[in-house]
User: Fold this.
Amino acid sequence: GAVTEMLGDARTLDLVDRALGASSLSPDYEAELRLMRGSILLDSGACEAAIAELDMVLELTPDDDEALAKRGLAFLCLDQYENAGRDLNAALALDTESFWGRFGRGWLYFRVGRLSAAEQDFDVVTRVAPESVLGYWARGYVRLTNRKYEDAIFDFDRALQLGSGFSSGHMLRGYAFLGI
Assistant:
């Protein structure tokens, strides 16, 4: 989130850890902090640690679709597709337009070769979060893989408009252009 962007992962993680050390946290606030911590761990590739942290979030707030979806992404990071699918589908049962649920399930579908289903999930991601660089980049990557070159170029262009520092978007856009 915004705090992580301002301070960076390590500094934010330190602040979250200090806040978690406070003596009297409400269960909702503890869950919020643990979700932030689990998200940072997931972003840094510490997938097993992220799962452990997100397990604690789900003990406190079992119906947290974001925690379920991010734990699903962490399972996907470890190639545990069955666990990933279970969590991602549970997140989507709570909120059919969950950004992280759709994003995660789209990647799961991509990883197992279900490109049309992946593209459909990323269509929802770009609709519910039209300013999401990740949504356009992911859908573009699926479209590139599926040889929908012009559609992929559109998505990479949009991702680059939204986040100019997204260097792989330039490279992948070039691959799509070569495919036309």
User: Anything to note?
Assistant: The radius of gyration is 17 Å. The mean pLDDT is 89. The first helix runs from residue 2 to 7. Residues 9 and 40 are 6 Å apart (CA to CA).
